[in-house]
Amino acid sequence: MQTKNPLEFFRTLPPKQCPQCGNQITEQAESYLMECDHCLSKKDEY
């Protein structure tokens, strides 16, 4: 079994989608957010 180049693996991952609204999330380095900015802004902060 041949191993893929790690860069190629990450390049071919599908874009992350918001589980609340289904919009594509624009990811940034070191960001682990699961919701898009729009859905995050609608949440109440405690």
Automatic annotation (TrEMBL):
It comes from the Bacteria. Pfam families: YhfH. This is YhfH family protein. It comes from Peribacillus butanolivorans.
